[in-house]
Amino acid sequence: MISQWQLRAAFAQRLSDMYGREVPAYTTLVDVSREVNEDVLRTQGADAERLGSIGRVTAERHGAIRVGSPEEMRQVARIFGALGMYPVGFYDLREAAASAIPVVSTAFRPVGAGELARNPFRVFTSLLTPADPRFFDADLRARLENFLAARRLFPPELLALADRAESAGELPEADAERFLHLAVQAFELSPEPVDQAWYATLERISAVAADIGGVGSTHINHLTPRVLDIDELYRRMTERGIEMIDTIQGPPRWKGPDVLLRQTSFRALAEPRAMRTPDGSVTSGSLRVRFGEVEARGIALSREGRARYDRLLARVDDRAAGLPPADRAALARRLWAEELPDTERGLAAAGLAHFTYHLAPDRPRDGSRPPAGLRDLLEGGWLRAEPLVYEDFLPRSAAGIFQSNLSDEGSRNSDQQGAAYDSAWLSGVLGRDVLDPFDLYEEQQNRSLAQAARELGLDGTPG
């Protein structure tokens, strides 16, 4: 029998192999990421594995897909459910970028610490919002929804196998092989001709909308390796002649611990596609929709830490208007140094980031009673804090990656009121709860604190 985590690991590897054949520059990105990781490990030793073993980091991927209708989104949830992946977080990219990006998103991923350690594969999954009148008028909405209703992205056999795997937590080897074959096949780039006029109609609204609703299939939009030094990777990719987007999205590089998520990518490549013209003939064309993203993950911030991060971003935006990128980055580093503790212990003591807590091997053994407060337990050497990796995404960074790879900004009618979408709505669409990432980090942290308190003989959990 093949367990869910084994299915997940095999699916991630096969998807990576497939995408590398379709987009050779992705293979270069993976190779350079591996080289950088090996160099960082050689230079930093054990410190390089503070946020995950080198085995996990090297194998780690996140993918991105886009679907068009609630029914397609429900089917995606069933496929990823077979892999032990749950919807975590709600991201509204409509509000996160100046360009027209009419999608809302979630990320399917494992949630338990053990499952994440086995294989942390995650897929950022975006759903088109045809009901938003800022992007689609009534006529185009009806045409788009009819087009989406008529296509079939996932064969019934795949969905049936997915339901069996999710229910049983495993599949027999032959069924597992069939499931993996069908699942990878569903995300391959289709050779079917693209309706040129229909694609162009949607592209005038949004290139993202055209990529989702302008074709009869879906595909992997990008796969993302994890790297330990994203600035060095950016430099090496540029040296190899691969055009990167202008910036690294997310927090700046600064003297303190890495937090949240930093991302960049090479620019979307012109890929040959067959195009069906209005007279029915098929010609050769090209589309720029897929790119190669790479990420560096840091420590998960708490709700308070994330609020501080968002305020810092707003201050940078306000004060850096019109500044060149280098000056903006310098300003961000200065503000980060002013507003955030520059050590893990400082972040933990201030309650700005999430950790698991364990008894320190060299804690006091003189018979003294440990203090009740978390800060005192850390400063007194009673507890050690292990950082929790940020496993999720930043809507502004995701939108920034999308926007950086678009040829134009599309169109938006800001006089219209946007359609309302939220986490509760998406939970209803999926037929399963969209989990709150903050809750997941808090639960893991609180379990470790309660265990440490019991081992120290404390009354209550340290705060």
Automatic annotation (TrEMBL):
Its cofactor is Fe(2+). Its EC number is 1.13.11.93. The keyword Oxidoreductase applies. It is an enzyme of class 1 (oxidoreductase). Pfam families: HGLS. SMART domains: DUF1338 (SM01150). InterPro entries: HGLS, YdcJ_bac-like. Keywords: Dioxygenase, Iron, Oxidoreductase. Belongs to the 2-oxoadipate dioxygenase/decarboxylase family. This is 2-oxoadipate dioxygenase/decarboxylase. It comes from Streptomyces mooreae. The lineage of its organism: Bacteria, Bacillati, Actinomycetota, Actinomycetes, Kitasatosporales.
